[in-house]
Amino acid sequence: MKLAFADPRNMTISPLNMNYGRPDPDTADIAPSIRQRGVLLTMLVQEKTQDGAVVPGHFEIVAGRRRWFAAMAAIAQGVEIDPVPIGILAPGDDAAAIEASLIENLARLPADEVTCWETFAKLIRKGRTPEQIAATFHMTDAVVRRTLALGNLLPRIRGLYRREAIDVATVRALTLATKSQQKEWLAMLDDPERRAPTGAQLKTWLFGGASIPAKNALFSLDDYPGQIIADLFGEDSYFTDPNLFWTSQNQALAARREALLADGWSAVEVLETGKAFESWKHERVSKAKGGKVFLAVSSRGEVTTHEGWLSAKEARRAEAAAAKAARGEGDGDGPKTDRAEVTSAQQTYIDLHRHAAVRAVLADHAGVALRLLVAHAVAGSALWRVEADPRRAGHEAVSASVEASPAEARFRAKQAGAAALLGVETGGALVGRRGDGGAAGVFAKLLSLPDADVLAIAAVVMGEALAAGSAEVEAAGLHMKVDMATFWSPDAAFFELIRDREAVNAMLKEVGGKKVADGNLAEKVKTQKAILRDFLDGTNDRPKVARWTPRWLTFPAGAYTKRRFATAERSKAVAPLLRRVKVPGAGEVPAPTVALVSDPNPAILAAE
């Protein structure tokens, strides 16, 4: 069965409906509810066909006849009815449709949303998920989650809604309000001299953000440089400059986050301003077992702390990690977080730029390249067949960025030189070009070249066969001390791919300082990226920061959060290996124990 929504005006009664052809039903008991709230319960339908073809957007009702009649009557009276939830039965299965119509008339859900919420809340406490509830009652996930959101309301507001003292638009707006806002709204409702906002006006009141109460400040009002005014009764006071308030509030929010981390919490996540914490998507987990703290910031500056929560997926991982620890297994690092520090596209961007820079420097370090070549031959790698790295970006902006990089231009020049030495056409990789005589023909050509030319070709071939995003890139880059600032500068693609607010705030701290970063802690990613670019470009009165390279791209690589970052993990893994290296002699490469290809045994030359 497929769940969807449909316009009731595009629906008719199916002949398979057990009440088909009977007089119009009495809908007096459900008409008021449907006029006010629309159709809440899923109607079972089949797609309408005409001349053997499905008529798009038109359906025949198998179960839900009374609801449809009530909805059509409301429309006829000028009431605007939202699209109704439908469950589309498989075509041609008439027996299933008849069974569904019978079940519909024998068993019904509670008649109002508050009773539904009470029922659903009990099921949630018994371990049911919203998805399971939706499947059981043939409802969409959206309807179930919308009903569960009633749990955010104070009991009195739910009672008002049950008695139809407030409409559906008002109650849905109130589900987005904090408890203190709900109490304030109820106080206005009880005051005969005040008018409590409803519907769209209520949402404006909740999220307008123009009036920010002084009581919501996390910082000391004694140190606040701006102006605070009190109302006529002197009971409440408000900030006159919202921008100045948010700067101080964000700095205090940053201090609270640091204090919670110092108190032993595994992570503290600051939600975007105005985004509510959805407790039904999370589970309670103690600090000792890896629970996080979520700081919800309302549009009016109110900060709510939710301590000891993990997403459902992270909670399962925490349980598994605890079970492993109890058995003496696992690495002791605790459960992994839900998401990485960077997106997959950003990771590709980072890997390819690092790859380009390493092989560009590699082309000037023939001794290192030869050793990499031998290492690949002995130990193998993901690419050793031999073939060139495909360098698939999977994203147009990433591909364009890498193609335009100085590292790519430098390596292409080296490729052209190597191709000329081998006597093959320039353009594209050397690896995989068999030519006349295959490998033997290439071998014969190499025999006629001096050591320097052979090593130059080997360096280019190694650069082509070096796998992007590999530990080998990290090892070579660390050993050669590749300076990414020589080959990379922040471009549009880099900023476009950044999605993590915590990471971009840490970058802002690098270029603009702690005060600037803390002052924009709760700002959107887009806003913080714009400020970061101002520093790098020296615009909007920001001092220009030259040759900045993010930790993601430096050698060794670093992360900005405690979450996993593949590049930094690879850098950390190869660092101990390089510390054990002892370079023989004064030069980069030890003297060969056998003659190189350009210095063959005289006996071989004589045989020619």
Overview of the structural elements:
This protein has 608 residues and is of the alpha/beta class. It has helices spanning 31-37, 65-76, 94-106, 113-125, 130-136, 141-148, 155-162, 168-174, 179-190, 199-207, 242-262, 312-326, 344-362, 366-379, 396-403, 406-422, 438-447, 451-465, 471-480, 484-487, 492-497, 501-512, 514-519, 525-537, 566-579, 602-607; strands at 2-6, 11-13, 43-50, 53-63, 84-88, 228-230, 237-239, 268-270, 282-284, 292-297, 303-311. The strands form 3 sheets. The protein has a 5-stranded mixed sheet with strand order 1-5-3-4-2. Strands 8-10-11-9 form a 4-stranded mixed sheet. The relative contact order is 0.06.
Largest sheet, strands/sense/barrel: 5 strands, mixed
Calculate the terminal CA-CA distance, rounded to whole Å: 79 Å
User: Strand order, biggest sheet?
Assistant: 1-5-3-4-2
Multimeric organization = single chain
The number of helical runs is 26
